[in-house]
Amino acid sequence: AATEVLAALLKSKSNSRRAVNRGYVTGLLRLHQDWHSHDMANTCVLTRRALLLCLKHIAALRSGREAFLAAQGMEILFSTTQNCLDDKSLEPVISIVLQILRQCHPKSPLPLVTASSAYTFLVPGIIASEPPSVLTEEDFEDDGEEEVDKDSDSEDVKEEDDDLEADVNKLSSKPGPDRPEEELMQYEAMCLELSCSFEELESKPGDDLNFEDTQYANHHHIPTAVFPKRHSLNKDQSSWGREREDTVQSSLLSMVKMGRSSVHLASKKGPGMNPYRNAQSNGLGIDSSGNEIPDIQAFLKEDAWEIDVISHPRMNASFSNSTRPRDTVEVIDKLLQTHPQHVPFHDPYLYLAKARRTRSVAGFKMMAFPDLWGHSPPPSAQSMLERKCGIQRIKIFEDVRRLIQPSDVINKVVFSLDEPWLLQDTASNCLRFFSKFESGNLRKAIQVREFEYDLLVNADVNHTQHQQWFYFQVSGMRAAVPYRFNIINCEKPNSQFNYGMQPTLYSVKEALLGRPTWIRMGHEICYYKNHYRQSAAVTGGASGKCYYTLTFAVTFPHDEDVCYLAYHYPYTYTALMTHLDILEKSVNPKQVYFRQEVLCQTLGGNSCPLVTITAMPESNSADHLEQFRKRPYQVITARVHPGESNASWVMKGTLEFLVSSDPVARLLRENFIFKIIPMLNPDGVINGKKIKIFLDMEQRLDIWMEISLGLVLPC
């Protein structure tokens, strides 16, 4: 009872200051040790908890934390608690110990030269900001913030439930336009199908597809007749892939800004836009003879091939051990000869050509193997990982052990975008990392122990915040050895990783064995607040922002493999552009109206695609054209946030369904015109992070909201 009264008194900051000034912290720690050593039967847990509450209230003050650290409080609580984390009878004690350890762990800045992104993009009219100052202890307010340990069960931020029943009388089903209707007429440039005569869409002799005899594409597969055989790109096709067309189609948004309400485009695809019409294929289907796939290592040793050359192919020539340049097309040819693959709606040759046209802030020269080679769905659905309690506590104690017992900490930087001169030691036992490819995001990797690494992801371009998406390559591993990865600069206060979600993994060796599949993998996963803080100079004078750690362990399937780890199944901008071209070739132009256009050019110089899908009118008669032009619009958009790659996979399935022969899809096409922007933020997807100062996005959304609400029907 006396200790509980003392704990209640120490809730007062003035009383806590007196306790610190009189040296009571050391005495409280001695009492804790004494009770811990003598209460072997755990009969005085409440007394021990009350003593710890006294320390917790004192630690709410900066002076109290300093006194606690000076009295070796971290070491004492660590040593007295580390062996009883699983003891349920000591739960009241362990919970308070964890709160004190997290409260008193010295706050420090992230191990980065600057909080700003490793990539910068000069935006016209925007003055570059100065780098943030170095973090000091004064950056943190002495607010006595309390940590509550519920072993990942509770969110740090609880939002009020706003899902209340709305008053339907206050809702407006069709709000009025915010500008004169005469001005809205200029958006006819985005609805070219309404003024189309459809004469140019009639089939011509020599078309690739015989749609009279071929089954139309559905959402399960694409007909093999779509792809005539090809072995490699010819000279003209290769040069097309490396160079951007001289005549780029003007963006629709630019037309609208210029007030051009009537724009004529010759056809769905201009001349020279598709060099694959007559290209040859080397048979992307599965080997029907049932031959066994040859041994990977024997294949790699032949002609001095290295798995590193295969695993992240260059957009141009690559080099093997023989120092002879190998064009990536040659690499693809050789791989497909020995490792045939069939990924629906994917073509490595077309992907390569599209990747050469994609522009990135960092000027990527490499491609990720999973994106080039393709991805097949897992053979069966993967269930959520069963949650294991106690992992967060173990990780907090490991962080404390790293602080008080640093002798076994390697702390070696093995990869850094900020230090491009840093060469990865291929002879050492450490893993090798790489992320300079489309959608890749890993800024720095630090080896903590032999099989443990701290990782940091990049912030938004031109910014210091928004770290969530990760996608990187790792190699040089040993099979059947658990490696632990700690991503230490996450920002969200909670994550689905605490509730069964797992990172995704793609193995190059597994892909070459005929299993090109992203799978959910990882164990001992948890997401929790760490001791890293952001400088108050960065946050505009407010207290330093908290960071969170995502930690997981991975056991790789093969020795010396090359694997890719990602937040979710990646989906790149190049994959989208490849998919749209293949999809367009798969539709029957007599039944499906499919048009690719350019909504606008992004800041980074990439085209933001706009797709129109609907059913062709039955004929060119006035009645049928009138029925066609009265169809309401449905606007579908995705990927405004580049880290939400799941949206692109949903969009991929939506596109494939809408052009399929499914009766529901046919009915939808006959009743609606679908305007689809499958990727609203191409630059963000390409660079692995969005570019801050994303111009014109609100205006684009305003335009499409007006169209979708039926405010623009230029009949």
Descriptive report:
The strands form four sheets. The chain has a six-stranded mixed β-sheet with strand order 3-5-6-8-12-11, with helices on one face. Strands 4-7-13-9-10 form a five-stranded antiparallel β-sheet. The chain has 715 residues and is of the alpha+beta class. α1 (2-9) runs parallel beside α4 (45-58), α3 packs parallel to α6 and α14 packs across α18. Helices cover 30% and strands 14% of the residues. Among the domains are: 1-104; 107-115 and 327-570, Immunoglobulin-like (Sandwich); 573-703, 3-Layer(aba) Sandwich (Aminopeptidase), CATH 3.40.630.10. The longest helix has 15 residues, at 24-38. It has helices at residues 2-9, 13-21, 24-38, 45-58, 62-70, 73-81, 91-104, 181-184, 235-242, 252-257, 296-301, 307-311, 328-338, 348-357, 369-373, 391-404, 508-512, 573-586, 622-629, 645-658, 663-671, 682-687, 697-708, and strands at residues 317-319, 325-327, 412-416, 432-434, 444-449, 452-456, 471-475, 482-490, 504-507, 519-520, 523-533, 546-555, 562-566, 592-601, 607-615, 633-637, 673-677. It is elongated, with a radius of gyration of 30 Å. The termini are far apart. It comes from Diceros bicornis minor (South-central black rhinoceros). It catalyses: (L-glutamyl)(n+1)-gamma-L-glutamyl-L-glutamyl-[protein] + H2O = (L-glutamyl)(n)-gamma-L-glutamyl-L-glutamyl-[protein] + L-glutamate. GO terms for molecular function: metallocarboxypeptidase activity; zinc ion binding. Its cofactor is Zn(2+). Belongs to the peptidase M14 family.
